[in-house]
Protein 1
Amino acid sequence: MSAYGHEMEREYSAQSLSRRGSSEMGSSHITETGIFMSSFAAMVFVSGLITVGVSMLSLLVALAVMLQTCESRNSGVLEMHRYKDNYEYCRSFALHAELNSLDADSLPAICRDVDRLYVKEGQYGRDLSITVGMAEEFFGSVRPQVDSRDIVLIDADDLASESLFSYYLIHRINEDPLHGSSRDPDYLRHTFARKLYLKLQSDGWPLILFSRKPEKLRNATTEFLISMGCPGWSSLIMRKENEMQMGFQEFISGQRIILQREGLRIIAVISSRMDALRGPYLGSRMFKFPSPMFRHSMENHVESQVQKSE
């Protein structure tokens, strides 16, 4: 081969190497640190970074949700503890207020919410049920004697809601005995008192009712009790005009003395109010229906309005 041929061959080889090097440089990457990385490896690396980033973000979101949930639960637990503490305090306060005949308005303001929840959350209904259960258990263990001198005294004002009676007295409209709400304390008390009343009546116990209302309301009270599903009592004790200024505790104590002198045996007295559960001749048992804390102030107001309307 001539010298010119060798020179052409060397030139052709150099051009081929130059083109191949240029092509390889176009399909690869060199990082700033000098590390060679192909396109596929770069794509895998970037995808991995994105996956790790998404995973970390998801983890942070999950942790935030968990922390918020724990905070809410802790807040609920603290709120429940606070309610229970307030409930115990307010119930103790209410008990002493009732035992000492204090005005319900003397209760702390914080107890108003507790009183509302006491009825709304169902605890009042459960307490009423416990009282009725205890009474039924007692009367299930005794029977009235054949001489018919055993009697049970029941507070008629628990059987007949004061608020409904006031409405009936003004409008002379009979309300449905089942009308009411499980969140209304008067309706709840009537429901459980009526259940016990009908149970004692079916077991043959002579029942004597007593009320704080005046004698002049006897006909309206009788009609209202019957409309509320409570007929068939032996007698209904009410206050005469000259007895209205007398404290009810003094009045009903005197009535029990009269019943005792007539040869009747008082087996039990059933009421939601302490004025009926004090004094002599209370019988073998006393059963007190529980009361919402502020109920008595409302009853006193309704009772005064009833008297004014007459």
Note: The radius of gyration is 42 Å.
Protein 2
Amino acid sequence: MKKSDLAALLLLGAIWGASFLFMRMGADQFGGMALAGMRAIGAALCSLPLLLSRRRLAEMRTHWRPIAIVGLANSALPFVLFSYAAQSLPSGVSAISDAIAPLLVAASGWMWLGERLDATRASGLVIGLTGVVWLVAGTVGFEHGGGSTGWAMAACVGANVCYTFGAHYSQRRLRGVAPLSVATGSQVAAAVLLLPFTVWLWPAKMPGVQAWLAMLGLAAVCTSIAYVLFYRLMSRIGATKSMAVLYLIPVFGVLWGLVFLHEPVTVAMAGGCIIILLGVALTTGLVRFRFPGTKVAAANEG
């Protein structure tokens, strides 16, 4: 990997890690639904220049139904769920929870799609889910009222379930469609889907300047620019190496929460983050163990 590509990867991890900081900053004043809606609408507006491509418009017209479903699963619902969670959870905890998506993709592929799990990937699933239990047990409690941290963590898990469905669905229904066409069309679809709910649940008191800046950061930087950067990076270094960004998001999410919001880094957060990332590394094949009786070699051999 070239130094420029490594720098782009670090930048993307920092940007997506900052999305949890921005949601934490804006969720209380906008409310979860309005913030999610404005994020999708803002991202769709920022993506309008990409619609000037005739090929992209043709692809979106041809595949508008599956693209709309991906917009619902990969953008609209996760935006709402993570924004709701941001009203109760520290941004670092939400960022760590985002790392469970690859575990859910691997588990669902094994259970429902018949995808093979070798010993390394299976152990990664067990280790990663152990980290999730560690994180949940140390940070949440189901109290009375919708704003409890327990329900917020459930919303984070639900957002990752949506990502899992979106990953499998797009792989089956949108294979061969240009990634930027899917990204642009799905943001437009998410904006259309969330617009009526955004108007209906608009806060009675106008959000302050800080909340608006946080929303603009979410829409323009963490959504529109980040997607363009991600797909450009994939075209240069491939999808597998680009997925390394999943290991950077929790680290930057915790860092930004500590620096800008003075959120404490608890033992549960640190332990859960380390265990989950180890599980993800094993599940995705970044790290491999040698098991007795198998031909699985360590990643640093050969």
Note: Confidence is low (pLDDT under 50) at residues 142-147, 294-302.
Protein 3
Amino acid sequence: MTEDAFTVMAHAALKIGIRIPEAQPVRRLYEQQYLCDYLLKWGINCVFDVGANNGKYAHHLRMMGYEGYIFSFEPIQKDYLELSRLSQEDARWKTFNFALGNEHSRKPFNIIEQSGTVFSSFLEPKFQAKKNVEMIEVKRLDSIFPELVSGIENPRVFLKTDTQGYDIEVVQGIGNRIDDIIGLQAELSVTPIYEESPHYTKSLMYFESLGFSLMNLFVVNRGKHGSILEYDCLMTRLERFIA
């Protein structure tokens, strides 16, 4: 079938009311496919998984065939225990029970008891939720970066950060080692659900100021009437790392 014939058929289907359902499993499969191809294209052999939660992101990387190193950071003890269980037989998957940020400190952290702990954050939620506040350890990534990549031949690093409004601070903590980061995946808040959460345009402008180019956007979730609440952005430092 030619492209023109397909377009005619597609428009005819739309005209009579046929719609393709926006099924979440199908959308997630496309996102996973894109990420898998991205890691292969850029030769990524080292993933920093910041805000690892219970390890699903890293586990999915393994299921997709990624065989490089993974360094997962998760401060919540309950989630960290599950993360450790998943990674315990994987020699190239290391886990750390602290948070990353733009300073070395101990800070109050809101553990939200809603839908697991996926909404837990340093920031105050705008929604009503049961929460516990714990003091957790925070480190800068640049202080541990040399130790993490030691022994990895030609490390090509991809940073994934999902910290519920704290991603800019995580990236700030990379300091001068930003030159070693090839790719970035971060969550952008379009409709903020936390107090003082940076607007998505501010986050994008900051990442772009560091030399990252936007490669793709994926909808994380929508509001009641279809508005975008959050995006995942995928970015690359094209000028520095293009072959």
Note: The chain has one domain: 24-241.
Protein 4
Amino acid sequence: MPESPEVQALVDELESTLRGRTVAAVDVVEFRVTKTRSRPLTTLVGERVLGVTRHGKLLAIDFDGSEMLVVSLGRHGWARWAPAEADAAAPPAGTGGEAEPPPPTLVSLAFDGDTVLELTDAGGWVSLGCWVVDEVDEVAAIAKHGPDPADPAFGRDDFDHAVAGRRKQLKAILQEQETLAGIGNAYSDEILFTARLSPVVHAAALGDDELARLFAATTSTIRDAIAARRGIPIDRLKEAKVAAMQVHGRAGEPCPGGCGGEIRDFTFASTTAQYCPECQTDGELLPLKEGESGR
């Protein structure tokens, strides 16, 4: 699932490439992507791009006709530039034409200058969503957003107001967009490892020192990741994210904290997450699934 650091890098590339360009054509391959049926994406034809902004894990393309295209990448959505026809016909170098097929394009937006942006979805169900609105707050997910830890103005008071005293597990709080915008499964694992806190402990059980560690880990993890992704081409952002993870996706590997322990899987809200038992749970193994302990 794209999270704020990767979405910010995507937004930066879209901004630098699309600002000032005019929409020449829109092709909606999958009708379920359109969430504003009374304002189809084809109404954007002829509009000129004024800028691109990030809102949590969503992005918005602002046009000069006062309209905005808001895109939720969902769980498996992403964006890419369509290759030139000659490049598209040729198989990737060194693959013998047997490379894994790319995710399907669900929406295509052609701009002047032969620039084509494709919105894709690699999932078994459509998670990509698009809205044509006048203001971003017309999209309910954005209207309900909590503060964004990437915002330089986000401080300890904002964090305590959102988190402190909550009778809810830390990992759930970090991923709750109404509490803190932009964090998902991967970065919540990274934040909790950095803070050396259990994913399943309730926020209400934390002392001030632990809250301070969690605040510092939240802001540094997200802001450092945004800085690290800056300038990486959008087709390499997933690879860069995976390579940067300390614990997420690394079950079975030695703990990078040097404790001698091993990163373990556990099940959380129908997904698999990772943690270090030695560093985060005093050696307790969290359940991998009902009735089991994480491997």
Note: Residues 267 and 291 are 11 Å apart (CA to CA).
